[in-house]
Amino acid sequence: MFQNNPLLAKLKQELNEQKPRVEGIVRAHEKGFGFLDVDNKTNYFISISKMKQLCHGDKVSGTIITNNDKESFEPEILIESSLRKFIGKIGFLDRAMAIYPENMPTNFAIRCKVNPQVEQKLKEGDWVVATLQSHPLEKDKNHFSAEVTKFIASSDSNYQLWLKTLARYDLEDEAPQAESFIISVNEQENREDLTDVQFFTIDSENTEDMDDAITISQNEMGNYNLMIAIADPTAYIEQDSEIDNIAKIRNFTTYLPDFNIPMLPKQLAEDLCSLKANQKRPTIVCKINIDNNGQFANDDISFIPAWIESKAKLSYNNVSDFLAGRSDLNNNNATIKEQLKLLSELAKARINWRQKNALVFKANNDYRFILDDNRQVKTIIKESRGIANNIVEEVMIIANLALTMYLKEKVGTGVFNIHSGFDTKYIEQILKILADNGITDFDKESLISFEGYIKLRRLIEDNDFLSTRLRKFQTPADFSLTPEPHFGLGFKAYATWTSPIRKYGDMINHRLLKASLKAQVLTPPANEQLDGMADRRKKLRLAERDIADNLYSQYLLDKIGQTFTAEIVDINRGGARVRLTDIGALGFLPLSMIHSVRDEIAPDPEEGIIKIKDETAYKLADLITIAIHNVRMENQSIIVKLIASNA
Length: 647
Fold this sequence. Notes:
The chain is an alpha+beta fold and 647 residues long. The protein is 28% helix and 30% strand.
């Protein structure tokens, strides 16, 4: 009687339209129910039965149902699923294959099929890439289903962590493959023979892809004659060739803890192009005359394609120890020893020059994971930067500035690294912070200008609290096809070319430089390439962070109660983020682990301080002593508690 009754259908529609409608993000709970987060303050309960139509992270809309004064959410429309392409672990439900997506509740499983292109026979615990085929909220669908498209790692692989992380960010897990490489006749012509020159490299002990070598002399006026030889992979790789197109997609070599994936085939990256000792290699050499104050100009620079033969591979640690008088050099070449002393003088002169004419920031420590045969963390080594690191850094900056001058004057385009200082939407907030700290000689216009930014950075150079506080207001670095300022370095323009084995943007600049030197037609890079570089760089940083967080958590898991010195790097409503200065790990210090009486402690993220009883007790950049309280491997979080202030 009521079936297909148009009046009843209309009534139902009207009643439904009268219900409050919302949209938000689904947050699943391990016990099966969930919540719809509408904003930071508003959420609605989702029952277990309704959660069977949803997964954690889905963006959905629907209606609010009120029953006995209790509101709950009823999903109706899928706006965007959190699962499209995802990674997960293989399992079996009633002998049917299923996939358990990562970062979902442990009992959330999706039945799946395997794409025929996946050759491995999958077993329980294997990690795979999958794509969602159906979602219960999609039209004409009533269940979840997925298809496995790629095998990542077996359940017992020691490399599981690295392979999963690479897959998560859609990064390659192998070096490009190629048969053989030869240098074309065109690339061999007019290449000057500098194989007798005393070039040498300075790198880490285990570096194989060495793309720069140095030689230096000094004239009777005390000025420096510096030559920097940069490996030339474009001598082997033709533009738009298969290998070039692969490099164009990868953009960078992937560097993860104890696991590197080269941008170029290993035959090139670690052999034919690597500036190995006593091996003849094609390079582009930059010759620069630098006065004893560290200055040079356009007329002091020249570039030439050349053959070189490095005479020695030196290591950072050994060079630093030699120059500091702690040990002898692991090489008996007297000429190289004299060159190292000249390079040390030049580096100091250049640092002084940059302090007056650009910016020099305090060097950060490097941290290196030492893994055992099962790729578990044995220890973490803190590596301080010595004079050898300063030498290489200053020489590479010199070479890059030389190329920047050339591109600006002779070419007009290239891949330029840019940074525009502070994000303009925070300027008023920054001005208030400066005024509160007694700095009043800046206005909006000066603060967003190149000169004003440099003036401020120099002014607060030794103020760790203000430097840390203002860091979060900066724009990210980017790329440009035209010369624009790099506020962070303090240069009006900056382009790199010193790492062509590892960076595709540097290969582009090599080609532009070589075409200009040979008076050939230039092929300008495309904006799409810069977008790809920025996207890939972001993915690589996220991947490196994920690996490091996991390894840090693994290392600290059995160190509950051990104490460390830590620096406060951020303050939020719940407490403080701290960096353990001896190993580099980030931990979270909850307010309850700072002061036991909740009503007496108050964080002020805007001011970068934590007050206890209305008095400032802790602030950004403070050094404190903490103990490891808890390590949660499921989300790689390290919880610490306060032991003492180091002030």
